[in-house]
Amino acid sequence: MARKKLVFNREAKGLAKYKRKGVTREPYLKVLIVCEGSKTEPNYFEEIREYYELNTANVEITGECGSNPMSVVSCARELYKKHKDMQVPFDRVYCVIDRDAHTDYRSAKETVRQLTPHNVYKVIDSVPSFEFWLLLHHEYTTQAFEPLKGNSAGNQVLERLKVHMPNYGKGSKGVFAELIDLLPSAITHAERLENAAEASGSDNPLTLVHHLVVALQTLKDPK
After folding, report:
1. Is pLDDT at 76 greater than 80 in this prediction?
2. What is the mean pLDDT of residues 17-39?
3. At 204, phi and psi to the nearest 5?
4. What average pLDDT does the segment 173-178 reach?
5. What mean pLDDT value characterizes the chain?
6. Are 69 and 97 in contact (CB under 8 A)?
7. Which of 66, 75, 134, 178 shows the greatest Cβ crowding within 10 Å of its Cβ?
8. Mean pLDDT of the region 34-61
9. Whole-angstrom Cα distance, residue 31 to residue 90?
10. CA dist., res. 131 & res. 135, Å (int)
11. Structural domain span for residue 49
12. Between 13 and 209, whose confidence is greater?
């Protein structure tokens, strides 16, 4: 009986906390993060949301939109319209996509570029995959990743990442916490690579995940 009472008290406290912090929007930007992956990316950004104590009413994360870039863009548009119709529009909508082997990668980026309002939608892409952002926590590289017979570009990044993180797998949890001490290095590496890509005209490899991470880090900062 005591055990049941303890569980009940925990659930009640959790519900009370949700009512206090998860329903009423706080006075900073409301953002939507739509991910291509159903587990890996949502888990990662949810961990960031929790780490920086960002309100769930301000930061909504979903990975239930399909597994290709255009499905992410379509889902983002639908969710934006739904919230706008409810008079609670998002201030920023981030579409987190990979190039990897997707044939609609370029068209998805172009679609987002044309969406209105222009200052709301942002593409957060990685070439070839989200795991490349994780790799940059451990090393800096400009090596291009091209698909090989029986070994996709994304899988090559995963294999290289596992040299540093042997237990990593798709859908892993606790990744942000595991890499938190290396985050400054990852951001520096991503910025350096972005500048190199702009100079060379090549986006292989590249990741813009650092832009979203920094945006979440500073979401509560007064404007």
Report:
1. yes
2. 78
3. -125, 105
4. 97
5. 89
6. yes
7. 134
8. 95
9. 5
10. 6
11. 28-217
12. 209
Structure tokens at 68: 């290709």
Q: Other CB atoms closer than 10 Å to residue 58's CB: what's the count?
A: 21
User: Is residue 179 a part of any domain in this protein?
Assistant: yes
Q: What is the pLDDT of residues 103-138, one digit of tens each?
A: 999 999 999 999 999 899 999 999 999 999 999 999
Beta-sheet strands, E only, within 49-91? 59-62
Whether 210 and 191 have beta carbons less than 8 Å apart is answered as yes
CA dist 54 and 32 (Å) reads: 12
In single-letter form, the type of residue at position 89 comes to P
Residue 147 has pLDDT above 50, yes or no: yes
Domain assignment of residue 191, yes or no: yes
133-163 in b/e burial notation, b at 16+ Cβ within 10 A? bbbbbbeeeeeebeeeeeebbbbbbbebbee
Q: How far is CA 181 from CA 76, 84, 167, 178, 185, in A?
A: 32, 38, 18, 8, 9
Task: Decide if 28 contacts 58 (C-beta within 8 A).
Answer: yes
Tell whether 14 is covered by a domain: no
Calculate the CA 220 to chain-centre distance. 18
Token digits of residue 97: 């996509």
Q: How many domains does the chain have?
A: 1
Cα distance between residue 105 and residue 71, in whole Å: 11
Per the listing, tokens 């951001």 go with 187
* Cβ–Cβ under 8 Å, residues 97 and 124: yes
Q: Are 135 and 160 in contact (CB under 8 A)?
A: yes
